[in-house]
Amino acid sequence: MPFLKRPSLAAVGWGSGAVGFVLLLLLPLGFLLYRIVQPPSENWNHIQEYMLLGYTIDTLTLAVSVGVLSIALGTTLAWLISAYTFPFRNTLKWALLMPLAIPPYIGAYAYHGMLNYTGFIQRTLRTTFDIEVSQRYFDIMNIPGAVFIYTIFLYPYVYAITRAFFARQATTLIENARVLGSGPVRTFFRIVLPVSRAAIVGGVTLVMLEVLNDYGLVNYFGIQTFSTAIFQTWYALDDLNSAIRLAGILMGIVLVFLLLEKVFRGRQQYSYTSAKASPLKPQVLEGWKKWTALSFSGVVFLLGFILPIFQLLYWGMLTYEAIFSAEFVSLIRNSTIAAGISSLLVVVFAVIIANFTRVASGWFSTVIARFTVLGYSIPGAVIAVGVISFFLYAETQLQLFYAYAGISTELMLSTSLVMLVFAYVIRFMAVGYNSIESGFEKIGRRYSEASRTLGMGWIKTFFKVDLPMIRAAVFSGFILVFVDILKELPLTLILRPFNFETLATTAYRYASDERIQETAVPSLSIILVSAIAMFVFHILIEKEPN
Amino acid sequence: MHVQITDLEFSYGKASNAVVQNFNLHMNEGEIVSILGESGSGKSTILRLIAGLETPSQGKIGVGKDTYVDDQSGKILPVEKRGLGMVFQDYALFPHMTVGANILYGLNKWKGPARRARLQEMLELINMTEYRKRYPHELSGGQQQRIALARALAPQPPLLLLDEPFSNLDAHLKHRIRDELRETIKYTGTTTIFVTHDQEDAKVLSDRVVLVDKGEVKKTGTPYELLKETTVPQGIGGAQA
Question: Which residues of B touch A5 (CB under 8 A)?
């Protein structure tokens, strides 16, 4: 008589919200698939014959080279900081995360400014030391230059995840290796790297996804990747159909990377939750070793944060009077509104979905959770073409309703902020969701159950017990999404309403107009907000007992 | 009979092995019954089924005049409507609420003055009146346990469920708290089901012991009758009787 078993009211309640959101998220992607199977346009033959190979080679070269170098840099730094004590180690521990506050396209503006003929390095060499250098050595606007920029600003993903792993999960193994007489180099290569493989792969996948997503840097450097190609095909050739096909291929590359991630992770799952191990006790470095460790990590911090910041500050001082105006206030307002509304929506949906996956275990909630985080692996340009095709279709269907409601315009949604916010929510859902899900994981189900046995229904329990207990996670999720949106470029460029400028699009516009010095103030505003957010998180995470 | 549990059956998901099967228990009002079994015997699941945190595939559960579960009519009373008291293994005191707010939590349907009076009464019962404004993390393990008990007893539940409430306590503390707990429960006259793997706990605390293995009742009797025999399954911890 198994009829007593049926889904609980709470599961049904949270489930409907979760399913509704996931459907909304899948619609644009469905549109993309539908459009890809349509017959190609004339341009497509040309693209396929002459351009496609170039796009693929450049995109893969960038992603793979940056991936390899980020692993080398990120794991080495994580190991140095976790396993050894040397001067300024505690400062460098968080300082080495800071390059992440600088979006690669802004880093690229700063480095190009520093290294070009009129930049301060060549100028100093010329005027102070009377040295003329070959421009060949200082030209950064090429693939090796882009690899350097991406690596120096994105390696913190590998560094942060790997360091967290070293500090919390690998302690016993590392200490055992030490007891068994293994030296530092052997321990690193034989124990540390293999056991942290899952963490490293997790970090480097994020790095490569960022590279595939980026548009600002490759466009500025004139490198032909899929991101730039999607934009050009769409804007210059006015061929949305071919842009969608390119987006489809880029998505294929992303899927291959994600598949490789699964393969390389093997059966190890990377998680903090089972960690009860004590943190690794660092060894004191002496003599030349400590100075080498300090110089190495110091130089990385210098290249990834200090130098570009000084360059931007210098430019900022030259241009701030022209930039600070009513227009700048409206930039800040636009950025804050777009990021604020979207982040709020993200955390609301994330709370609903995370709660659903918590109360209803089983394959269905697992599928819902997988789809929820899908957006973060899809490059902005791909989401943009999906969302725009979906909205254009939706609006043709809504014409009758518009006529009935007396709305005169033909395109209301696709010329408003709605479309951009929708795309942001899809793209950054994973960031909010992961934060909130980990909050729920920490509290478990015991408190909700206690509340239910004390007579509270599932809605009251949620507002009185669950929500107050995960408020830190909700807050973190909100801030992380907010900062990500503030830095975001490709989606904003394509989907913003007419004349809607944000800090990121303005920095991009100035750089495209070769008014490189003017990029400084909007760039610094973005970096300042990101840096403060990251610093606060570092403090919060360090304070956490587990 | 105050508590009537008949032919209770439960399995997780589609697993064919029942975690609880053919479980029957009848209790008089004010009685304290221990469910004794080793880990994995299904004893905690029985408690969760009575509380309404899990739904049985079969069986009947009734407490007082209320029917919680009836497989004939398909009735399942939601957990929050059962009005039971439950003390969790890790107490589950809400960390963002003070001791007072924790105890008041289950009294939301009570009128203002009655609520305040009940809070005072409960704090006096457990000798912790001066701790009303403290937060759970500011209390010792034993104090947290007393608050969890007060919170569960405050709404005057028809049945109190205790899930291994001593497992987080040091041995020397446990003896004192165990005696206090029995005293408090007997003073309030609350019918209680207590789940444990420790024979000594079952002996001291309960009027009757139900021995459970693989989700089934193996034996039942007074602690004296049951625990003087040496037929307790291996692996059950605690002091030997």
Answer: 55, 57
